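PROTOCOL LOG
Step 1. Enter all chains and additional molecules of the complex.
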Amino acid sequence: MSSTSTHTILTKQGVSFGSEVLEAFDAQLASQQFTKVFFLVDEHTHEHCLPILLAALSNLKEFEILEIEPGEESKSHEVLINLYYALTELGADRKTLLVNVGGGVVTDLGGFLASTFMRGIAFVNFPTSLLAMVDASVGGKTGIDLGEHKNQVGVFAAALQVYVYPSFLQTLPHPHIKAGYAEMLKHGLIADSNYFYELLSALKAGKLPSETQILSSIHIKAQVVEEDFKESAARKKLNFGHSLGHAIEGCCLANGVQMLHGDAVALGMLGELYLSYKKTRLPKADFIKTTGALRDLYAVKHLNIERKELIHLLLHDKKNEAGELRFVLLEQLGKPIINVPVTKKEAEQAFQFIFDGDE
Amino acid sequence: MSSTSTHTILTKQGVSFGSEVLEAFDAQLASQQFTKVFFLVDEHTHEHCLPILLAALSNLKEFEILEIEPGEESKSHEVLINLYYALTELGADRKTLLVNVGGGVVTDLGGFLASTFMRGIAFVNFPTSLLAMVDASVGGKTGIDLGEHKNQVGVFAAALQVYVYPSFLQTLPHPHIKAGYAEMLKHGLIADSNYFYELLSALKAGKLPSETQILSSIHIKAQVVEEDFKESAARKKLNFGHSLGHAIEGCCLANGVQMLHGDAVALGMLGELYLSYKKTRLPKADFIKTTGALRDLYAVKHLNIERKELIHLLLHDKKNEAGELRFVLLEQLGKPIINVPVTKKEAEQAFQFIFDGDE
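Step 2. Run joint prediction.
Step 3. Record the structure below.
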């Protein structure tokens, strides 16, 4: 399938982008022999995205739809086990294809479901949220949460193909757009400060990111992943903002407080910029300008979670080694350093900076 | 570590065998940096095998012991989830090593646990049952059951090393030795009929298999696995006896009837030898001699399970394609054919042959 408006971004990561990806997927259905096709959707993508996708598929024969509730609560072992049973009872076999149509929850959960059902069936991703387009659905991280421990269980498993259809963003409410911007801003902070400020202007102006910007973010992510798929070293830089961010997100999850992943990462970046200024010589002017902008856009008035609980979660983070906290910090904008040891006290100060603004 | 009595069998599969493997593992602990070591055992191996292993380890520092109940019931998602929580709460990180000490249940479950915890930590296997030594712990199939569906969830993941310490067999009750023989007899049927008859004599004489025989079986298995790790084609021949066998085992599991995996495979082989005679021209003399011997050793008087349930489970077997049953059958002893379509009626006749002896 060739088309002027479908770009395959990086062959190894298998990401296609553009207005023609629905037809590209239809061609894949025609050329590969799947015994059955299952679509994993949430309530929203079932209503808003799946009909658009189905209408474009002329080569689809037998299929089933699996619907989950929207939200992070669905990335749980209970939902996963129900889906294993659903696949079994609906006659999925080893040559079944799973098509994940949704945000990061659907692509993370669906990727893990496919990679472990009958020791692995093929899956493709149709990310429908901005965050999933630029982050979650690219790079083969799949998994579920274990209670408040984010992504504690999972595997690295590449999708057969990731199809990014930018028009799906039209269906997305603004808070989800803003949360998606947070991961893009992270790409700017770790790779290109001009890109960071460009995105910031677009976000402040209430615009959707341009197709070029979405492509830029996928490029940054895919390149890092290609270098280090299993996160031995280089890939860790994508975790900027995620040590503190995951702790905040996990606490909110455990306490029933609504918090989108991207918003938690934005708060995490606030604290990790602070630590970068304190510990790894991020210039003060950059620290002030970036945290000021992030605070204006992402700060929350009051979060009903305990500092102690945040620290407890942080101490169980996957990124730690031998009980020691390890963060990604910046020595300059666009220049991350991985594996920086951080003390419990420094982490507490970072949380204080995030929530109270003290320096 | 070099020793005259420790053999590394196939480098790619990383299997070590002999009386010196405990010391070889101790050397591995010294040379590799693990932050912590977790031992997964069942009640029996905790009592009989772990003390022997621990006594040999001078380089072991921080460790924890995770104990599960013995038996197939532990290969469940409930036990798996508890183990994820236990690892989390006891401070396991990405550089933790999991050491599986037990039979197939422990090595299957533990391999899956390690491969999915924090998207994969390292694990080694110490198989303690005959079946695990010659089959389960070699080849990277890991997983759990989903209710009565055997190994419905899992991944292919190679252990860092498999350490086969034959003295552990001394602690094994005879029914488990007999069940382990069944997988070895399968190796004979698919690869070498002389080996089949040699094992049969040893089993009838009530002997433990010799070290040479155990090594032969590991060799047969490891060679097939090396050729086709993910079971695209050649590896399927190791499934001889397992289509009908897994259905029998799954039914027993669902109905609370005790049935060891090896014993179920022996019954499955009875039925699949019958189908080989009927469908793929296995010579009548071989059919009569092999099934006669297996029936004498493994036939059960009465099993409290329904034929209908067996067929239902068979129709959901992982090895099927597009709803069609696919079996491994023999055209001669030592000459398997994979992907043979089998009708529901033929499967019913095979069950009848197994349980009623009708031809």
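Step 4. Note key features.
Chain B touches chain A through 36 residues (CB under 8 Å).
The CA atoms of residues 36 and 62 of chain B lie 5 Å apart.
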